[in-house]
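Reader question, answered in our methods column.
A reader sent in the components of a multi-part assembly and asked whether the whole thing could be modeled at once rather than chain by chain. We filled in our standard form and ran it. Here is what they sent:
COMPLEX SIZE: two components
ENTRIES:
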Amino acid sequence: MNPPSPSIIKNRQVENMKNRALSWYKPIDPWLFILPTLLGLIVFRLGPIISALFISFTNWDILKKADFIGVSNYSEMFNNPAFFKVLWNTIGFSFIYVVGVMVFGLMLAVLLNQKLKGIKFFRSAFYTPVITSAVAVGIIWLWILSPKYGILTILLKNIGIKSPYWIGDPKVALFTVSIIQVWKMSGYYMILFLAGLQLIPVSLKEAAIIDGANKVQAFFKITIPLLSPTIFFVLSVSIIDSFRNFELIYSMTRGGPQNSTNTLVYDVYLNAFVYYRMGYASSLAYILLGIVAVITILNFQMKKRWVQYQY
Amino acid sequence: MKKKIQILSIIFTVFLILGTPLFAAGQQDAAGTDKEITIQYWSWDPELKTRNETMIEKFEAANPGIKVELTTVEPKEYWTKIRIMANQKKLPDVFNLSSGYIEEWAQNGLLMDLGPYIQKDLNKDNFYMNLFDAVKDLSGTDKYYAFPYALVTTCLYYNMDMFDAAGVSYPDDGWTWSDFRDAAKKLTLDKNGDGVTDQWGYWFYGRYAHIESWIYSNDGNLINRDTMRFDPDSNAMEAITFLTDLVLKDKVAPSKKEMSAFRQQDVFPNGVAAMFVDGSWNIDNNRSVAGDSMKWGIAELPVGPHGNGSLTYGWPDSLAIPPTSEHPDAAWKFAKFAAGEGLTMDMVMAGKIPSYRPLTESEAFLEKGQQPANKGLLIKQAAKTMRTSFTKSWGEWRGYGAAEALGFNGVIDGIIDGDLTFKEAMDLADTNINKVMSRNY
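And here is the structure of the entire assembly that came back:
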């Protein structure tokens, strides 16, 4: 006897639903279940997002009643050379971060996607920095990079290289901080890549190798294209993630030296919670929101050209 | 289905709207039926929580009918939370207030003038009244908007072991800037001859306590109080030049970037620099970091060529009462107690100077047997005239806390790190700081 075709099974299920098993079902029920989350989102996310837009047109400092000041905050921002420096730092940090976590994350994932003894130990070891507090990471790296006694400084000195002032030199500091963020977060993206890699059937790669491809060719022609949905996901997430760099900057450089590590997120924090210029901070935050939105939309537009969904 | 959603959302909204006042009303009733007065006290020091509770118990025992409810907020969140309370006109009856905010808060009408209470209900022999005057000056008015309970002043810390080893005599009252520089030169050592300095004579960077202390010892000012603009006078410029030259010319102090691995307050107690100037609260930090591993003392700042030693950089921590308080008499009573007889030495961080004289002038304050041996020197400093650089938006233009690498702090760091020339730095400071000042004044 032939098994019933899928369409027949589906029809039967629909019949069942209609007739008896789910007779208590009301269309409103799913709404009830998501209502708590929805309320939370509206009160704690959407509400602040909308009110921040209004605040960005005021000079609110929490203490006084806010005055409506039109686009003054925005015009102050665009007339402030330091703002462009901050913008540039933000982009620089994001670029290094996104490229860094994608390359290192993928590298670690490929290395760990093997059947070796103790592989689980390495997987958790590389993941540890992700769950370590950014403040602790910052302090440890300050020690490692210390100009006189730091391990890295001493190691480099032994092979005849004079270390720059990793976090004291305005030309180097942003690079240093973003690389440390890469070090901290690569493990997270490694897990994502690893999950993607393990979905790729080994048979495809084996077939390619039987057909005469070498390992490098197999990696670039088989693995990478099949991994493209994961790569896309990692790209989108890491871009958004790259703007969240407050803690590390706070614990390592506080935006210095000479504004060289001051990013939009850090500047929003300073203006909101140190200077209490809520209006100006909100307008900065809206610029950040705009940037993230544009990049994400672009990203999704570009996706059609290079992401190949297998299933 | 639509209708049902509508009904449900209406029910939820009504519930949310009604729920809050009902809940609040319930609380009010409970307080209203009680005959006792309850006042709220907000403290910014979680470490003092149990000691504050003990103090409150003593107060309540001595003042039947008044209950004090203590709220302790982490210092990091204190200012944001209390600003929101101010915004909601729900400020606690008594709360901690730091010097930097007195002007802004007083001008926004958030602080009660304590003058009448001070006039009729304060034994002025029991308090350092110059601290009350400092608070008055800080408000930019002739009113007393806060009750100072402890003063932080700055002093010179010196490592006695290093002084002994270098054969330099300890700093004393007569020390001038050049005595200081000569000592710093002798105390800067390359111990192993590798061309890298191992022991620095002095350590400072752009931090307010590190710079303004010297400016005031030379009778200078960063802010012109008539125009309310950043306009360092020649005495201030002399002090800034003297300090930055210690790094750039005399090479007796490290650049900021050289010390990047240290918390700034740990350079001295770790024995990396022989001298250090910062707030007197560092007595506590030096004790906990250095322990018994080194002998150290404190001295007054060397007097600058244009100074006469009568000024000191000091800022009191205060208690404030808002005009919205429903029980101002009880709040005053409690503030007076908390800043006076209720205060014990273990509630004041070592190095802070209580404004309550019986406590400061007691044996307990001197903490005999602990370093520094000459803690009494602080009492002398507490009697001097206080000067500060506080203005509105001080944290922003000065570069404080999370903004420490920016503002004037960042500019000075730029000079000693070699990123900016002296002139570039001061021009930058002038433009940026006066932008902030013109927003406020």
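What stands out: Residues 35-152+315-366 of chain B form a domain with the D-Maltodextrin-Binding Protein; domain 2 fold (CATH 3.40.190.10). The interface with chain A takes residues 1, 4-5, 8, 12, 79-80, 83-84, 86-87, 104-105, 108, 110, 196, 255-258, 260-261, 393, 395-396, 400-406, 410, 413-414, 417, 419-420, 432 of chain B (CB under 8 Å).
Send us your own complexes using the same form.
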